[in-house]
Amino acid sequence: MKIASTYVCAFLVVLFHAVGLWGFLHPEYVILFKRLVPFHLLLMLGLMIISHHDRNKYFWTFLLAAYTAGFVIELLGVNTGAIFGNYTYGTTLGPKFADIPLLIGVNWILVIYSTGVFMKEFKIKNHIIRALVGALLITTLDVLIEPVAIKFDYWSWENFEVPFQNYVGWFIFSYIMLRFFFLMKFHKTNFAAVILFVVQFIFFFLLNIKTV
């Protein structure tokens, strides 16, 4: 039953990203699919929770900490410009508190969790090296995300340029959160999360090619 639910969740991850890709590639449906982005993030979070089969207190602690840290780092980032550079959020990510989308923490959970699970597959015993490689992968993903995010009003940058500082900020924060992820004592094997990690790269890569 557990294996079956994991594969179902993995299938749904692929399906909803494929549908989302189709929607964003057709201009007449872009407005509708932008409105669906918050629901997509919540769905992905739900699928990751369902497909995770060791939901102990450390797992829930990670989720809460990752959400909180993700929201706070964005709050500081937007209000100071000292972490990622000068940027503001658009409307695509949904309702905001203090000009920060409430779901930005969910986005950070998904990125950190899926990358952490993906890195566990490589059996790298040194947590520092594992976190460094994972942070590099996340930063690479952000390189793909940025043009798409700007085009579809996820967020926008001062002078319409993404500063190198942003990627440094992503790398450092991702490294810290991955270190925390690996230190938490819960089961870290989840096929659906590995699929999510891969699909995110494919999704944003194809959107870069087709729309940016």
UniProtKB/TrEMBL annotation:
Its domain of life reads Bacteria
Its transmembrane ranges are 7-25, 31-51, 58-80, 100-119, 131-152, 164-184, 191-209
Q: Which Pfam families match?
A: Caroten_synth (PF04240)
Designated name of the protein: Carotenoid biosynthesis protein
Claim: Ribonucleoprotein is one of the keywords in the record: no
Keyword annotations: Membrane, Transmembrane, Transmembrane helix
Keyword ATP-binding set for record:
no
Q: Which InterPro entries match?
A: CruF-like
Which residues, if any, are the signal sequence? none
